[in-house]
Write a structure and sequence with these properties.
The protein is mainly α and 339 residues long. It folds into 2 domains: 123 residues, Alpha Horseshoe (Serine Threonine Protein Phosphatase 5, Tetratricopeptide repeat); 142 residues, Ankyrin repeat-containing domain (Serine Threonine Protein Phosphatase 5, Tetratricopeptide repeat, Alpha Horseshoe), CATH 1.25.40. Helices cover 38% and strands 4% of the residues. The protein has 15 helices and 4 strands. It has a two-stranded antiparallel sheet with strand order 1-2. Strands 3-4 form a two-stranded antiparallel ribbon. A hairpin with a 2-residue loop joins strand 3 and strand 4. It holds the Pfam family Ank_2. Keywords: ANK repeat, Repeat. InterPro entries: Ankyrin_rpt, Ankyrin_rpt-contain_sf.
Amino acid sequence: MLRITLLSGEELTSLPLAELSDVKALKQRLHQQHGLPPRFRLFTKAVSEGQQQELDVAVSDGKVAKVEALLQLRMDPDAPKDVDGSTPLMRASKCGHADVVQLLLEAGAEKDFRDLSGGTALMCAACSGRVSVVRLLLGAGAQKDVHDLLGNTAVILAGFYGRAPVMQLLLKAGAQVDFRDNDGRTALMDAACNGHSRVVRLLLEASAQMDAGDSQGRTALMDAACNGHDPVVWRLREAGAQMDARDSQGRTALMDAECNCQILDADAQKNPCDDEGQTLLMMATEHDVLPPMEASATNVQEGNGCRARKSGELRNSLASLRFWEPQRQDGRESCEAAT
């Protein structure tokens, strides 16, 4: 048993020798559990440009031993900064080099430093889906809800890129689920827009506002329907997403679904018109995505009303709106959201 005593004579702790591989492990344990200074010197000194470049390369390549050796020279862990203003911690986080991230944090790297775009190390890790790094940064107290110049938070970026494991960590840590970027978009909107069904499920379980609209009035359901992401649409519908919400142009999710030849089974209004007087039926027949139906609907209005034609024949309103069989797609549609 190893007894650790302060200069005052007060015993700090006792540790089994079997749990300590070397002095470095001892210093790490004392720093993490008792708040003692880290094993790296807290003050820095000037180093050569060549050494700064060495640190940059070692960090990017994930060379732990090299990074540690350079940090022992009392280098500033936040230098050198790249042309975009990013720090070594940001680059290590983006690349997923968890051991390097740990070293930089121990050396006193600024965990919430912002690059020229306002991004942080946590955002870099969230974008790239680096689960271990996100866990380290959250454990070190990184700010969860800080945003970049476009209004993106780590949660929004994890939603946009479909990083489900990262999203789980962020939500468990209490990150804001409905934070809006500069366009009024939330993580749920971006995840739905890009077809990330698992992330959508996580956000819904975290009570994300499913019917919220962005600056154009677009909801998560509209984005999912327009981009043909059937599983996401089903998930949102099962959660009770509003089918009849309209965007700033008067379009509904049903109208958007037609854009991708999707047909939704819903209790929504079957024949709403947009601002140009176009109904779902008119748009569907224009693209020839409906099978022949009973021609029982004859009460169709002219002018500002809604009228649907196909080869001179009227078709009735949609009696049963159903999804087509979900199609597996390797690629994902992108949406107009900040990356």
